[in-house]
Amino acid sequence: NVAISYNNIGGIYNKIGNYEKAISFHSKALNIKLELLGEKHPNTAISYNNIGGIYNKIGNYEKAISFHSKALNITLELLGEKHPDTAISYNNLGSVYEYTGDYEKAITFYIKALNINLKVFDEKHPGVATIYNNLGNIYNKISDYEKAIAFYIKALNINLKVFDEKHPNVAISYGNLGYIYNVAGNYEKAISFLKKALNINLKVFGEKHPNVAISYGNLGTIYPQKGDYEKAISFFNKALNINIKVFGEKHRKAIDNYSNLAITYEEFGNYKTADSLWYIVIPQITEQLKSTYLFLPNEQRIKYSNTLTSTNTNFYSFTASHGTESTKQLATNYLLNTKSLALDYTISTNQLIKKINDTTLTAQYQQLNKINKQLADAEILTSEERKEKGWDLAEIQDEQYNLALQMLQHPQLKSKLNTETIEWQDIQNHLTPDEVTIDFMDIYEKKDSLWTYYAVVIRKDLSSPQFVRITDKKILAGFLQTDDSKHPDYLNERNSRKDLYKTLWQPLAPYLEGVKTVHISPSGILYRVPFESLQAADNEFLASQYEFHYYSAIRDMLKDKPRKMTYKNMVLLGHILYDAAGKEKYIADQDAYDTLFMRNARDGIHPLKGTLEEVNKINKVGKKTRLKTTMLTIDAASEDTMQYFVQERAPNIIHFATHGVFLSPLEQEHEKTDLSGTRDRLRAADNPLQRSALMLYGANETWTKGSRLLGSGKDGILTALEVTALDLQNTDLVVLSACSTGLGDVHNTEGVFGLQRAFKLAGVNHVVASLWDVDDDATKNLMVKFYENLLEEKQDPATALRNAKNYYRDKGYEPQDWAGFILIE
């Protein structure tokens, strides 16, 4: 009974926005329940849900997920899947995943909760209205406004029937509808609904409640559209003052208010005030991002980063247009600390697991890789095929997520996971006088409604990072136009190469005097450009002027690099039989086969004649330098064999001489259930890592037929997603001597989602990949020269590749024959 009192008092403090006291009272109630009723009691679950809900409100999503998950497990075990208390837990978890940007997961939980409530209660229950509102919020965030309005109206109708006109639940519905009408541009209707919501909240809660702050904030977003900036600023300040008192200055709600104020002051022409506000926003977002990344699994990290896209766009836009030198330093620091951050955290996590050497953690890591492999297979099967195997895709995804979440709770892993923040001076101090870093980014120029590429330049002798405007996205896209994965059009003619040089490189010329080494981190479509291939007016390629180094993020320069690698072993895959049968004929008549590239190869995957000579010659170089070499050719170059060369058996070098493919996504109008060939199934995958792949033994069986290899669970197609499940932390170098292995879907902050990222996630230090369909014979020559430089001349991988490219450039080869391969460090 005392516990009930604590619980009730905690509930009141929660409603009036005193979350510190609310947690204190709910925790007292929980402790009593745990002592008297035990862990597995419905009343204990209620306390877990109460505490989890408050942690969600104050932005501690890790604790929120933990408490709500405990509540869900209890209710599922004791009350079953169809109980209202289970619906509460589902709804609460949906709310947390909504805030962390995992909208798909949030919708799944909300729908589960809705289905329970519709069965237990009738259509007009407040619990049903709550979930309708939540679903409306999700569809609003993913820009499906029609669905959002439909759910909001359903919720409003219920709330008006159940409660009176002045109830807080009605205010929530009015607020949601007001917000959506604002987005739709119907400002008068939006103001009408939002003022109704504000008046209810003021009467029920008073001036200092978070719900009132929401109303003020929503009203603030309307008035800039009407040109009334002073009114907008007034509303945003009111919202900010409430949120600071309730949540503190560092809470996400307060930061959102600061962001809105910064944007409004910029539109109002008060750049100085806007500048000062960004100085509050950006450090806090960086801190929140890094702390949230500590407990979120990789996929969820990327989704969480997507929730920051709007803020990032506005900040970088302000910096480029109105930022002072100091603002540009702030923006550079933000870029350095956030670009490819999810990739960085995942690699660091995997490395730490190995170093910690905890038996439980290691076993969990190995189990997670098994689940990842199963998930990669399951995602491209039809529902019928999954049913035959007894696989439930949602269950596999949940198992993957829960295990990853559990691993990230390991105290040693949590404490050692790198969360250090670097500054641009750290990069500058790392450079020699003849080095420069160029971090590309695409910035929205509000004045002309134009997406434009900028370069952020750091040099030893510059007092501050320089923001250099390059050109707009459309102009660059014209140069880089291509049919599917062929090389970009600019490579075909010398004049085009010169024109791209003028457009892309000439604006940087003032900052490159005396420079010999250029460290580059591309962005957007610039991931398709090997900068060595640009040609100046005097016909000189940039390759003859600079040494280029490529990174996912410029901060990778600061990482401790292993001492000069002494290679001991390598595995070579090439001369692969892509059919399941005909081994003898393949060996005897290989020269009679036509060499065709993967693109449009619907009639089958054809042999690559040059790969036998390629791997044989590289093998000779390896043996000459006393490496232990393993040749995997014909039917030995299989997915099953690749599963052997992992963990402690992973070699220092893996060389793939085969077909590579990057597939554009299937158009939405195609039904994913009617896909016959594996090619279309891969294209239908939502995960871009399923659409980048290497072809191994037997791939022909599945490429068009969709069947598996006899006696094997594999399909002969090694997707990038499957690569991420391989433990290759002992591998220093992977060479993807295949077409288009450096391509993939480009994420706004995380870079290219394809094979190069996959091998990095698997633990590989250096990845050599191609940016287009490379010529078979030219590739063979380039690769042999690369290995001679690497193994015989003892050059590091970047130097070895650069010198191999220069060798063939000097021999007069066209850039499409030597420039297509880049090394990601």
Q: First CA to last CA: what distance? A: 62 Å
User: Unreliable segments (pLDDT under 50, ≥5 consecutive)?
Assistant: 592-603, 669-675
- Rg estimate, integer Å: 29 Å
Structural class: alpha/beta
Q: Summarize the amount of helix as a percent range.
A: 55-70%
Our estimate of the beta-strand percent is: 5-15%
How is the main sheet built? 6 strands, mixed
For the biggest β-sheet, the strand order reads: 7-6-8-12-15-16
Number of strands: 16
The count of helical stretches stands at: 35
The shape is globular
What's the gist of this structure?
The protein is an alpha/beta fold.
Write the layout of secondary structure elements.
Blueprint: H1 2-15, H2 19-36, H3 42-57, H4 61-78, H5 84-99, H6 103-120, H7 126-141, H8 145-162, H9 168-183, H10 187-205, H11 210-222, H12 229-247, H13 252-268, H14 271-293, H15 298-306, H16 309-322, H17 325-338, H18 341-356, H19 359-379, H20 383-389, H21 393-407, H22 411-416, H23 424-430, E1 435-445, E2 450-459, E3 466-472, H24 473-479, H25 494-505, E4 517-521, E5 547-550, E6 569-576, H26 583-589, H27 610-624, E7 628-634, H28 639-644, E8 653-657, E9 660-662, H29 678-684, E10 692-695, H30 699-703, E11 717-719, H31 720-724, E12 733-737, E13 744-747, E14 751-754, H32 755-761, E15 766-770, H33 776-792, H34 797-810, H35 815-818, E16 821-824
Parallel strand pairs: 1-4, 4-5, 6-7, 6-8, 8-12, 12-15
Antiparallel strand pairs: 1-2, 2-3, 9-10, 10-11, 13-14, 15-16
Helix pairs in contact: 1-2, 2-3, 3-4, 3-5, 4-5, 5-6, 6-7, 7-8, 7-9, 8-9, 9-10, 9-11, 10-11, 11-12, 12-13, 13-14, 13-16, 14-17, 15-18, 19-21, 27-33, 33-34
